[in-house]
Amino acid sequence: MVDTTKLSELFSRNRQKLTGKLPQGSLAVLNSNDVFPRNGDQDFPFRQNSDLFYLTGIRQEGTHLLISPDFPDKSMREILFIRQTDPQTEQWEGKKLTPEEAADISGINTVRYAGTFDAVLNTLMSDAERVFLNSNEYPKYSNPVPYYDLRFAEQLRKKYPLHRFERLAPVLHQLRVVKENAEVDLIRKACTITGNAFKRVLQNLKPGMKEFEVQAEITYEFMKSGAFAYAYPPIIASGARGCFLHYTENNGLCRDNELLLMDFGAEYGNYAADVSRTVPVNGHFNKRQKECYHSVLDVQKRSIALFRPGTSINEINDRVNRMMEEEMIRLGLFSRRDVQDQPTDKPLYLKYFMHGVSHFIGLDVHDAGSKYQELKPGMVLTCEPGLYLPDEHMGIRIENVILVSEQDPVDLTAQIPRDLEEIEELMGRQA
To answer: CATH classification of 181-427, choosing from 3.10.129.10, 3.90.230.10, 3.40.50.11810, 1.10.10.10?
Structure first.
């Protein structure tokens, strides 16, 4: 596990960037995530709100942050609130942060216990002209459960009906999408751990294994390396199950002559990796598998070159779709004449490649950022073309993590094997 006290300068810079975007008379309020109930007397493992972590580095539940850049008392312009503990709580749950430790991690000088939050908030509200509240604005996400930020916003509007409330997410997401060097280093480390896990799978995979046995090899390597969590539920899918884009049951049998599609990533220091690889269960690609695999790999290699400043995910998608269409014609999935006759709103390639080729990655596996915005140096994205042939019991996806730079794109996963010959050689069964 990364020592976040060494990153306090990062969190301080992040706050400085945020305050530079806030108008005069602003107050920004951020809260930690809920602790979600699992069942009985158990909770799900806690994972901090990514925006709050971005500004503080605090992983602990019950945390709040107030930022009021123009408040007359300079000691109250940044205030971090943490959960107050006691010997009985620590006897059962373990040690909690002290104010001094929270200050070391976050770089915030004023740290108070959460019991004083309402009173301090009331003081800052009396001086604020605009109140910026946070929420999850990822465009494809919806959930019927009202999470903490939504409940908090509703309560605050009722208590202070005459204040002007505004959205913090657009401001924060504009900042989060361009990574600092320290953030890139954490993503790179997460990718390295993920690559080591993949190599471990190559050494141990054989026909007759269950998909969850493969996942167990990955989990071992993650935890051994200090990545105690997956960045997202892993996909370990053999045969036709590889055509289910978000398959996570991972309980099927890995059969001889099948391909195994693995989509998984370590979370290290709260930053995500996201890697997909497809390998032969028996260590050797057959002729048809080779044809299809080479098509996807060739498109991926050409696609990575597109990740340059000035373009967008949307534009890259359009170009990759044309590449995949050409490969599908070459593979005999349909003809060029079929393409000429296809409905404009239902292109034939969508039957075999139905997802986008890229998304931003960072504190979240699907990180802040829009597919329409121009790419800039410091942005980190995935590149993941795929080919899905359920009638042939085959799904192929190859996914790398790419850093946009002033020069050529930088592949943060370049060390993870993907060439067909290298995979067969590492599996030790090359024919």
So the answer is: 3.90.230.10
